[in-house]
Amino acid sequence: MELLKVENVEVVYNDVVLVLKGLSLGVEQGSVTALLGANGAGKSTTLKAISGLLAGEDGEVTAGAVVYDGLPVHRWSPERVVRAGIFQVMEGRRVFEDLTVEENLRCGAFTRPRAEYAASLERVYGYFPRLAERRRQLAGFMSGGEQQMLAIGRALMARPRLLLLDEPSLGLAPLLVEEIFTIVRRVNEAEGVTVLLVEQNARAALGIADRGYIMETGRIVMDGSAAELLDNPDVQEFYLGMGHGGQKRSYRDVKHYRRRKRWLG
Questions:
Q1: Are residue 138 and residue 242 in the same domain, yes or no?
Q2: Chain-wide mean pLDDT for the chain?
Q3: Same domain? 58 vs 125
């Protein structure tokens, strides 16, 4: 069963800039789905169309529909979207730097009953023991990886059914990326939280995903299971940096991609 359907959606900014151009994708309930693409492909805009955050940037869904659990939600306010069970972790973490770790987590629980707070807090600390160790520390003094853990932990405090993650690997060392992605998969498997993961790091994302979509210039140009995409020669060449023979390719070797437009032809 698909928990989320994005159906032929167009998004326009400032009444003139068309960013999404008939975009369609589906996210199965209980799955991890990766949305991949280069910078500027429209991935973050897709998440904002789902979470109701377009209006704050003069953006609007002008065609199509975002359907969550059978209901069209693309005209809903962000607060209503969160209360319905959708929570987005923004690119760049955006924790409250002048608040402690625990105060940040408390903010995530704002829409939940007070009786859930203690259990939710211990649950997050179970996934992220480092946050428990630093619960009294100001978030602004934490490392980038710790702030990313805090941002995801804050989202989990809202007990989402659908978790939207925007570039969680951005600026992090490979070992931290692996740790955070492993925890995301644990949350998915242990609690059934559905995850839509936007990433440029295709290898890390497909490593935990069930299914993937690849975007170029506001459209989906390829989709399939994570295993199929990892084995696809085009994905290997242009997103994993590997040639057809399995050899690492340099940017010089693959920069002709934009001229070829293989998937768009």
A1: no
A2: 90
A3: yes
